[in-house]
Amino acid sequence: MRFIPAVFVASVLGSALAHPGAPHPDAEGRYTLEAEGIKAQFIPYAATLTNLWVKGADGTARDIVLGYDNTSFYPVDPGHPVYNAIPGRYVNRIGNGTYSIDNVTYLTQKNDGPNTLHSGTNNWSFRNWNVSKVSNSSITFSIYDASNSSLGMLGGVTSSVTYSVSKNKWHISMDAVSNDQKTPIMLTQHTYFQLDAFARPDNRTIWNHTLYMPEAKRVMKIDGNALPTGEIAEIPADDISDFWSAPHELGFASGNSNFENNCGNGCHGYNGNWAFNNKRDKRKSVLTLSSKWSGIKADLVTDQDAVVLYTCNWNDGKAEFKSSQGVAGQDKFIPRDGCIAIEAQDYVDGINHPEWGRLGKQIFGKGQKYHWESSWTFGTI
Ligand SMILES: *[C@@H]1O[C@H](CO)[C@@H](O)[C@H](O)[C@H]1NC(C)=O
Ligand SMILES: *[C@@H]1O[C@H](CO)[C@@H](O)[C@H](O)[C@H]1NC(C)=O
Ligand SMILES: *[C@@H]1O[C@H](CO)[C@@H](O)[C@H](O)[C@H]1NC(C)=O
Ligand SMILES: *[C@@H]1O[C@H](CO)[C@@H](O)[C@H](O)[C@H]1NC(C)=O
Ligand SMILES: *[C@@H]1O[C@H](CO)[C@@H](O)[C@H](O)[C@H]1NC(C)=O
Ligand SMILES: *[C@@H]1O[C@H](CO)[C@@H](O)[C@H](O)[C@H]1NC(C)=O
Ligand SMILES: *[C@@H]1O[C@H](CO)[C@@H](O)[C@H](O)[C@H]1NC(C)=O
Ligand SMILES: *[C@@H]1O[C@H](CO)[C@@H](O)[C@H](O)[C@H]1NC(C)=O
Ligand SMILES: *[C@@H]1O[C@H](CO)[C@@H](O)[C@H](O)[C@H]1NC(C)=O
User: Is 130 in the pocket of ligand 6 (CB under 6 A)?
Assistant: First the structure.
C-alpha cells in the first residue's frame, strides 16, 4: 500500500508543491530534513519520525531511533508500539477509563487492562496526518480530531506538529486548540532511542546507556498496571529511580530486589513518570542520554513539567530493527529491554488528580490554546 499520492496531493495545501525545490517524499513516502550533523525522515502516518542519523564519537553516522524499513508496515503492525509518533488527544493512561469535567463524567475506552492508554483505539497515532507545510529543514503535519472520535472525548480539536532541524538539533513544536467545549488535551513525541543503533556487537540492551536528569527529584508511585496511585514520591539519592544525583547507567539498579515489577506486574526496569522541579531554567537541558559505546549523547530541552521513560520491557524479541542499523551478518532482532522511549509531557492521569493542580494544563475550553515545545541536541561524549 502506498498511502502517499492521493492523500498527499489532496492534503498539501498548495504551497509545498508550488515551490520548485520543495522536498517531495521518497518512494517509501518519507520526507527528508537535513542540517549540519543531522538527517531526519518523517511520514504523515501518525506524524512519525522514521529515521534519525547523527554522528558518533568515531564520526560514523548512526540511525538512533526505532522504526521499520517498510513504511507500509506502520499502520498494520499488530504490536503498534507508537514508534516516534504523536499519540493523542490525551497521552498515556486515564485511570479506570473515566474522568469528569464540571461534574459530568465521561467514559473512555479501556484498552489497557482497566485503564485507557493513548486515548484508545482511534488514537492520533493511528491516523494519516495532513502535510501542511514542508521545506528542506522543516515539516508541519496537521490533524483535525472530530468530537468523540477519540472515544469519550468531546469537542473538536485542531492540532499540528512542526519538526525542524538545524545544526545537531531536532526541534519539535506542537499546538492544539479546542474548537467548542472543554476537553482533555495532553500530547507528547513518543521517541524510542537506541544510541548504538544496535551496532554494538555484544549487547543490544539499553542497560549500558547512561541517563542524567538533574531536575527529576520526584516520581509518581504506580500500581500493577503502571497507573499513578496519586502519590508523588521524593527520590532519595541512589534509589532505583535516582537519575538526578549523578548520571547512572539505566541498568545500575538491576541488582535491586525491586527492579522486577518496578514498572507494573511482570515489568522490569522503567515505565514511569518523573516530575521536574517547579523552579528550573527551561532553557537548560533537563535530560541527557548517552552511550559510551557509540559516544553519542542527546540533550533534551523542554517546556514540559514531566517525562515518561519506558525501557522496552514488553518487546517480545520478534520485531526487527532497520537495515540502517545493526551489524552486517548478524540477525536483526530487537531484544527485550532493547530501547528507551522518552516522552516529555505533563503528569500522567492528571485529569483524575485535581490535588496535583494540573487541570489548567490538561483541560482546555473553547478557543484555549495548548502548546508543547522540545528540542534534542546531539553531540559526543
Ligand atoms: C532542497 O534540497 C534539494 C536537494 O538537495 C535541492 O535541490 C533544493 O534546491 C533545496 N531547496 C531549497 C528551497 O533549498
Ligand atoms: C510492507 O508492508 C506491507 C504491509 O504489511 C506489506 O503488504 C508489504 O508486502 C511489505 N513490503 C515489503 C517489501 O516487505
Ligand atoms: C470505574 O469506571 C466504571 C465505569 O466504567 C464505574 O462504574 C466505576 O465506579 C469506576 N470505579 C472507580 C473506582 O472509580
Ligand atoms: C460540582 O458539584 C459540586 C458539588 O455538588 C458543586 O459545589 C459545584 O458547584 C459543581 N461544579 C460545577 C461546575 O457545576
Ligand atoms: C490505537 O488505535 C488503533 C486503531 O484503532 C488500535 O489498534 C491500537 O490498539 C490503539 N492504541 C492503543 C495504545 O490503544
Ligand atoms: C486533511 O485535510 C482534509 C481536507 O481539509 C480533511 O478532510 C481531513 O480530515 C484532514 N485529515 C486529518 C487527519 O485531519
Ligand atoms: C462517544 O463514543 C462512544 C463509543 O462509540 C459512545 O458509546 C458514546 O455514546 C459517544 N458519546 C457521545 C456523547 O456521543
Ligand atoms: C547486555 O548487558 C546487560 C547489562 O550488563 C546484561 O545484563 C546482559 O546480559 C547483556 N546481554 C548480552 C546479550 O550480553
Ligand atoms: C553494563 O552494565 C552493567 C550493569 O549495570 C555493568 O555491570 C557493566 O559493567 C556495564 N558494562 C559496560 C561495558 O559498561
Answer: yes
Output Rg (C-alpha) for the chain, integer angstroms.
Answer: 20
**CATH number of the structural domain spanning residue 169:** 2.70.98.10
Mutation test of ligand 6: which of 11, 123, 149 has the most ligand atoms closer than 8 Å to its C-beta? 11
Q: Which atom of ligand 5 has the smallest separation from the CA of 125?
A: 1
Cell of 174: 506542537
Question: Strand 363-364 vs strand 157-166: parallel, antiparallel, or unpaired?
Answer: unpaired
CB-ligand 6 contact for 132 (6 Å cutoff): no
Q: Hey, is 373 helix, strand or coil?
A: strand
Whole-angstrom CA distances from 222 to 174, 227, 230, 265, 315 are: 28, 5, 8, 10, 21
What's the domain count of the chain? 1
- Give distance in angstroms: CA of 96 to centre of ligand 3: 6
Domain extent, residue 168, equals: 1-381
Say how many Å lie between the CA of residue 148 and the centre of ligand 7: 6
Q: Which of 186, 205, 188 is nearest to 196 (CA)?
A: 205
Mind listing the pLDDT tens digit of every residue in the chain (381 residues)? 333 333 333 344 434 444 566 789 999 999 999 999 999 999 999 999 999 999 999 999 999 999 999 999 999 998 888 999 999 999 999 999 999 999 999 999 999 999 999 998 878 999 999 999 999 999 999 999 999 887 899 999 999 999 999 999 999 999 999 999 999 999 999 999 999 999 999 999 999 999 999 999 999 999 999 999 999 999 999 999 999 999 999 999 999 999 999 999 999 999 999 999 999 999 999 999 999 999 999 999 999 999 999 999 999 999 999 999 999 999 999 999 999 999 999 999 999 999 999 999 999 999 999 999 999 999 999
